[in-house]
Design brief:
Largest sheet: 2 strands, parallel
Oligomer: single chain
Number of domains: 1
Shape: globular
Length: 70
């Protein structure tokens, strides 16, 4: 994150995490957010395997042909 704040860095990191409960058509919201980025960073934590929606978010990322890394 520090490197991204350097004025000479040619990229920007923006947190587009979904923080509100995933209700209604949340997949469409995730899809729109994913379409607006050049790449996706996947942060893995202790409870990620039980987080609802993680598989769907990664599937959307792949469907949108966005590069991702964790």
């Amino acid at each position: 994150m520090r490197q991204a704040k350097n004025p000479d860095t040619p990229f920007q990191i923006v947190d587009r995490s979904v923080r509100e409960p995933m209700t209604g058509d949340w997949k469409a919201r995730v899809c729109r957010r994913t379409q607006a980025v050049d790449a996706v960073i996947v942060l893995c934590g202790e409870h990620m395997s039980t987080a609802t929606g993680v598989d769907a978010e990664l599937r959307i990322t792949r469907e949108e042909r966005k590069p991702y890394f964790g």
